[in-house]
Specification:
The protein is mostly helical. The protein is built from five helices and no strands.
Amino acid sequence: MKYNYAAEKLGSAVLYAMRSNESLQKRLQGCFSIFHTLQHHDSYLPPDLRKRFDAMIQAWTRVPDPEGLRGTVAVTTDKMNDQEACKWLGEVFSLYTEVTEREASEDRAIAAAASN
């Protein structure tokens, strides 16, 4: 339950990426629009996953938007080749998987404590 919000946002991003007909780069942009709120609260992710999430966001925002019209995520991801974009989509899925596994583990621990 502690990381439920992160699991919900990352899960929505994974579903979006899987169902989209857009380019891999546009899928990254869509994922960011779904889970960007996770970057503002450290408590949404465990510390080790927070580091990976932050590194991912940094990689998606490293190119400045010279005109200030599109945003750094769009400018950066549009410059990625398909291989790099695919790698980052895999990281979104990996983060989602790990968060949901930790949620399930926490739920089992709570249920076990309640039954004792």
